[in-house]
Amino acid sequence: MGRVHARAARMAGATIAGVAGSRLEKAQQAGLGAAKAFASADELIESGEIDLVHICAPNHLHAPFALKALSAGLAVICEKPLATDAASAALMAERAAEAGLVATVPFVYRFHAMVREARQRIARGDVGRISLIQGSYLQDWLLRPDDDNWRVDAELGGPSRTFADIGSHWCDLAEFVTADRITGVCAQVAVVQPARGSTSPVVTEDVATVQFRTASGAVGTLATSQVSPGRKNRLFLEVSGTEASLAFDQEQPELLWVGDRGGSRTLMRDPTILSAAARPYSPLPAGHPQGYHDCFDAFVADTYAALRGEHRDGLPVFADGARAAAICEAVLTSARTGRWTEC
Fold first, then answer.
1. How many angstroms separate the CA atoms of 34 and 83, rounded?
2. What 3-state class would DSSP assign to 138?
3. Which of 333, 325, 17, 11 is nearest to 169 (CA)?
4. Between residues 197 and 182, the one the model is more confident about
5. C-alpha dihedral, 90 to 186 to 190 to 225, nearest 10°
6. DSSP of 170-190, one letter per residue?
7. What angle do CA 50, 322, 168 make, to 5 degrees?
8. I need a surface site. Which of 30, 113, 332, 338 has the fewest CB within 10 A?
């Protein structure tokens, strides 16, 4: 992810002043085009040579690094999950707000043009009153017992893995698109591979399923998995209302499905026909596919614009990261107790 962040920073016109890793040699070998390698993150933050820090470290380091950066008066882009517990995430959001600093989280699926189009259509009432929100986020990169990663270790990744890693993206996207807040969850989690490499037993979930309700009275379901064969990064969101439905599939991001009682159609990303809210995120002509890098570049560019004092609609800030952490904690509580849990 450091390479993804560095590319987006350069695309936005930034100079990468420095890089830090777990040790100096790692920073020197990172190959991120930085002007200087620092021996530690603390040294980088305290250097006085940067005005914004990108935090791409393992999850358990997000809170201490971000809080230190905020205390130093730096703007922050911090990978999600914002923290491994909801209280720390809330503290980070509070500190950023108190300091008046730009602090954002890469919920980058917000930056697909067709996501912005769906959001605009819902906001102007095209779907009517929302009744059902449903979808999934499925991957297979941890399918086998010999598939391993630091995220599996709860000491590094936190008490939730699949939901914190990808369920957080889905919930943020659902709330962003609908402007409706998830208020209660009823969840199940399961470990499919009980041992992986050096991690035995595995205690963080491979799959999670969630029923939820929203502030407006809509109901919903979500399935998340990192062990679904053949699914590489399939984030799917469908919103049904009293007048129409909309569906977005991140593996086919050029398209938005629109359905009503009279039939259905699929809209292709075309800046000439998109709403004013979506058009800025559709820089290429129709038929020239955009993807994940484009979304990430747009997210970083909007963050840097905010650093210059410009307003960017829909920029995901630390408060959104804290919101995702609160939902994640409610999911774990519900799965543990077998009860509906407020969030």
1. 26
2. strand
3. 325
4. 182
5. -70
6. HHHHHHHHH---EEEEEEEEE
7. 105
8. 338
Is it true that the peptide bond before 201 is cis, omega within 30 degrees of 0?
A: yes
Q: Are 54 and 87 in contact (CB under 8 A)?
A: no
Tokens 């559709």, located at residue: 282
Place of tokens 């997210």: 299
Query: Is the whole model's pTM more than 0.90, yes or no?
Result: yes
Q: Which residue has the tokens 């201490």?
A: 64
Residue ranges and CATH numbers for the domains of the chain are 2-104 (3.40.50.720), 110-286+316-342 (3.30.360.10)
Query: Which positions ≥6 away from 310 have C-beta within 8 Å?
Result: none
Measured between alpha carbons, how far is 260 from 275 in angstroms, rounded to an integer? 19
Model confidence pLDDT, tens digit, residues 270-320? 999 999 999 999 999 999 999 999 999 999 999 999 999 999 999 999 999
